[in-house]
Amino acid sequence: MMLLPTHHFRDIERKPEYLQPEKCVPPHHPGPVGTMWFIRDGCGIACAIVTWFLVLYAEFVVLFVMLIPSRDYVYSIINGIVFNLLAFLALASHCRAMLTDPGAVPKGNATKEFIESLQLKPGQVVYKCPKCCSIKPDRAHHCSVCKRCIRKMDHHCPWVNNCVGENNQKYFVLFTMYIALISLHALIMVGFHFLHCFEEDWTKCSSFSPPTTVILLILLCFEGLLFLIFTSVMFGTQVHSICTDETGIEQLKKEERRWAKKTKWMNMKAVFGHPFSLGWASPFATPDQGKADPYQYVV
Question: What is the DSSP string of 72-133?
Answer without folding.
Answer: -HHHHHHHHHHHHHHHHHHHHHHHHHHHS---BPPTT---HHHHHHT-PPTT--BEEETTTT
